[in-house]
Design goal:
The complex is a heterodimer of chains A (about 625) and B (about 180). Chain A has helices at about 35, 95-115, 130-140, 155-165, 205-220, 230-245, 270-295, 315-325, 340-350, 480-490, 495-525, 530-545, 555-570, 570-585, 590-615, and strands at about 20-25, 30, 45-50, 85, 90-95, 120-125, 145-150, 170-175, 180-190, 190-200, 255-260, 265-270, 305-310, 360, 370, 380, 390-395, 405-410, 420-430, 440-450, 455-460, 470-475, 620. Chain A has about 625 residues and is an alpha+beta fold. In chain A, the strands form 7 sheets. Chain A has a 5-stranded mixed β-sheet, with helices on both faces. In chain A, strands 16-15-18-19-22 form a 5-stranded antiparallel β-sheet, with no helix packed on it. Chain A has a 4-stranded mixed β-sheet with strand order 21-20-17-23, covered by helices on one side. Chain B folds into 2 domains: about 5-60, Helix Hairpins, CATH 1.10.287.110; about 90-170, Monooxygenase (Up-down Bundle), CATH 1.20.1280.20. The chains are: A alpha+beta (about 625), B mainly alpha (about 180).
């Protein structure tokens, strides 16, 4: 943000865009952006583009048979199957590492131009599922960034549009990027951006247009459909296809010469209309998602104030004409579709760090979350398009006498069968006291936070014993793997990592101290003397440990964190009271009494409510 | 957790959806996790759990079926009350409607689907009106009027199931373009 306006950092080529391409040279050299792109033809398997498409995906769900110049490494173990690995020859890299390189390059530009980087907001397609989001967050961590928030791209775009044009009303954001499609319907009102519904396809984008053009070219060059094509030829036709696609946004026909099999040259021509025909089946998929999003929002196209176009692919005339037909209105194109998302992210980052406009983003869960039932069906716990943060409790019971544990499989998606949805995680609950079948009541709490990431906890409600839950994500890198990557990335490995850990703990401690001291100035009246004394001691202890210099790095980090925990514990009840005060203020004076009254009245039925909920959701698994 | 108490609203079936949305918004302004970035962990946790309680309460009260269930609970209804099945005539109607729906859906007859959806939407609106009256009666005399509420609620659930099924068919319709 410069003078309250978002500004794009200038990349080395003078534009505001960094192509998401990473080149891994033979001797550890890594290049990002246009310089990496230059290696696409000569070393196609070492030049990774569209890593975003592979984020959070496992080896087995890879888009088999899809035209690509990349080579995937065969998994060596079960754990390997949880993550795609690009085969570079001497080693392999995961999409998370590739993304981290891109983020590191951006971080470097930012440091060069702004001297330092604070918290960051990373945008993701709205239709990204939990595993894809987690992978994105991991990439941020790997790049050494403090990720404040994962923000949905269409929401970011709306934010930029809304503030720039001072718009109000209900808008649709049609976002067709390189590898993903999103449609989001949202309401803009007085600085509040409330998403009504979202839909999309996380494997559909401009790359697919390149692929259909490239397939045509290969045919013209003499390759049979489905034949194995060398990586360098694939890289060539894909890049020429992209150029043709771009040029057809300006002119109505394009022609190129291609090397045919056997050494001859062959002319290849494509018209804008022909491209539109090739694109039609792909665009049809966006219509389906658009209609569903409108229906979920309870709106007709006529009730939409405007359609905002986002993503480079929306420059295509065929796409614009298509959007106009679906929504019955000419889409808005006044802001650069490539930069609008970045502008929105900058506005959001400023707001989150308390510097910018007072905006509030209320987003939704893009895909339903559920639990696999006995027969392989799905019991939806949280339906799609629910406002986040969202939470639900579900009660389970044992089916055998003295059963001391069981497994719960969490899936995401809209399909009826668990096997057709995306597997998110399996968690094992153990330590249930021995009881007759059906007696134990396990309450599992699902929480989706503001980043659309899932948190799970379990409690045995008959005895009140907290259960230990062992969560195994179905896809993605493990904590140990990330740790190892962090160590590998630093010059002095473990030592540097310890130093970073102390620095992180210290930053967090200072932030908490500042916040707590401010709260004490505002709301010390909500504390009794003994609580206040305990908090003051905890504060003094934390200050003291930060100042101590004669501690080794690992000991110091541990000490800071344990003192932080103590302060956290000392302020717990107080935080709850302050929250209640915030609620009372939000509801306003007169309603305050009403709340008190209805809380009083509700107390009598609380027991019933509780019982009812348990009965309703009780089930055997 | 009583959703009415969470949003600071009186436990009534006749709540305006706009009022619920306004309350949700006002509370979100105070509680959304974005407002607690950089705050101590305990405060962030407390805000998160309150914010999701608000969202859950707004969800429950925005949907007439779950709102009715919530009102019933405040009236002291419990889960094991005798179920009140809709009348035989109603069930026959629904059965017929669903057969028509499936036939129209399988034949991809958009106009017929739309007409059926409209018909059921009208019945839903009618049932909601009667439900509102029944709740007013129940508020005056809990035990006498409650069976009527239960019966209407059960009809509403059948109608809603029809709407859900219709939506699935609409999803599968061939594309307009």
């Amino acid at each position: 943000m410069r003078d309250d306006r978002p500004t794009a950092l200038v990349t080395c080529d003078g534009t505001g865009l960094l192509p998401s391409v990473v080149y891994y040279g033979k001797h550890g050299l890594i290049m990002v952006g246009n310089s990496a792109k230059a290696h696409l033809q000569s070393e196609p398997t070492r030049t990774i583009d569209s890593a975003k498409r592979y984020m959070g995906r496992g080896y087995d769900e890879q888009l088999a048979g899809q035209l690509s110049h990349l080579r995937l490494a065969e998994p060596e173990s079960e754990a390997d199957r949880k993550v795609v690995r690009f085969d570079l020859g001497e080693r392999s890299v995961t999409p998370v590492e590739v993304s981290a390189e891109i983020l590191k390059s951006l971080k470097k530009s930012a440091i060069d131009q702004l001297t330092h980087v604070g918290g960051v907001v990373i945008t993701v397609p709205a239709y990204f599922d939990e595993a894809q989001r987690q992978a994105t967050k991991d990439a941020g961590r790997l790049a050494g960034l403090d990720v404040l928030r994962l923000l949905n791209e269409p929401t970011a775009a709306a934010l930029a549009y809304g503030l720039d044009k001072n718009t109000q009303g209900t808008y649709a954001v049609y976002d067709l990027g390189g590898g993903t499609f999103d449609i989001t319907i949202l309401e803009l009102q007085d600085g509040v951006f409330q998403v009504r519904s979202t839909g999309g396809d996380s494997a559909l984008g401009g790359d697919d247009f390149d692929r259909v053009i490239a397939a045509r070219m290969l045919e013209a060059m003499g390759f049979d459909p489905g034949a194995t094509v060398p990586s360098d030829v694939v890289a060539l036709v894909l890049s020429v296809a992209r150029e043709i696609k771009h040029s057809l946004s300006q002119s109505t026909t394009a022609e190129v010469k291609l090397p045919a099999r056997g050494g001859n040259e062959v002319a290849f021509a494509l018209s804008r209309d022909e491209l539109a025909t090739l694109a039609a089946p792909l665009l049809a998929r966006t219509e389906l998602a658009s209609r569903r999003a409108l229906r979920d929002a309870g709106l007709t196209p006529a009730q939409i104030e405007g359609v905002i176009l986002v993503g480079g692919s929306t420059r295509m005339p065929a796409v614009r004409a298509f959007v106009e037909k679906v929504f019955g209105q000419v889409p808005l194109t006044d802001l650069d579709p490539d930069l609008v998302v970045a502008y929105g992210a900058a506005i959001s980052a400023a707001a989150l760090s308390g510097q910018g406009e007072d905006v509030l983003l209320l987003d939704v869960l893009p895909l339903s979350l559920g639990v696999e039932t006995m027969g392989g069906g799905v019991d939806k716990i949280l339906p799609r398009n629910l406002s986040i943060p969202a939470g639900a409790r579900s009660t389970f019971t044992t089916y055998a006498d003295n059963q001391t544990g069981f497994e719960v499989h969490v899936v995401q998606g809209e399909r009826e069968l668990a096997q057709d949805c995306r597997s998110l995680a399996r968690f094992k609950i153990t330590g249930i006291p021995p009881m007759p079948a059906g007696m134990a009541r396990l309450e599992i709490e699902f929480q989706v936070d503001e980043n659309n990431l899932l948190h799970v906890s379990a409690r045995e409600t008959t005895t009140g014993i907290e259960q230990s839950i062992d969560v195994t994500p179905s896809y993605g890198l493990s904590e140990d793997e990330i740790e190892q990557m962090l160590i590998d990335a630093l010059d002095h490995g473990e030592q540097d990592l310890e130093a970073r850990r102390v620095a992180d703990a210290r930053v967090e401690a200072e932030r908490v101290l500042l916040a707590t001291e401010k709260s004490l100035r505002d709301d010390a009246s909500l504390l009794d003397p003994s609580e206040l004394a305990r908090i003051n001691t905890a504060i003094a202890d934390l200050h003291a440990v930060i100042e101590r210099t004669r501690l080794s790095a690992d000991v110091k980090a541990t000490h800071i964190n344990s003192r932080l925990d103590e302060l956290d514990d000392a302020t717990k009840a107080w935080a709850g009271r302050r929250m209640n005060q915030a609620i009372a203020r939000a509801l306003g004076g007169q309603q305050l009494e009403q709340v008190a009254h209805s809380v009083e009245a509700a107390r009598g039925v609380d027991a019933h409510v509780h019982e009812h909920e348990q009965n309703r959701s009780g089930r055997r698994i | 957790m009583d959703p009415f108490a969470t949003l600071g609203l009186p436990p009534s079936f006749d709540l305006d959806v706009r009022t619920i949305a306004e309350r949700k918004l006002a509370l979100s302004r105070a509680l959304h996790p974005d407002r607690y970035v950089g705050r101590p962990a305990g405060e962030r946790r407390a805000a998160l759990s309150k914010a999701l309680e608000v969202n859950e309460a707004a969800r429950q009260l925005s949907n007439p079926i779950t709102r009715a269930e919530a009102v019933l609970l405040t009236l002291g209804a419990v889960n094991d009350e005798t179920p009140h099945a809709p009348s035989q005539a109603f069930l026959m109607d629904i059965l017929e409607l669903r057969e028509d729906l499936r036939a129209a859906g399988r034949a991809h007859e958009q106009a017929k689907l739309d007409a059926l959806v409209q018909q059921v939407d009208a019945r839903k609106a009618e049932t909601l009106k009667r439900l509102s009256v029944a709740f007013a009666d129940a508020q005056r005399n809990q035990y006498a009027a409650r069976p009527v509420v239960h019966q209407l609620l059960s009809e509403l659930r059948y109608l809603q199931r029809f709407s859900d099924e219709a939506e699935a068919f609409l999803d599968e319709m061939p594309l307009a373009l």
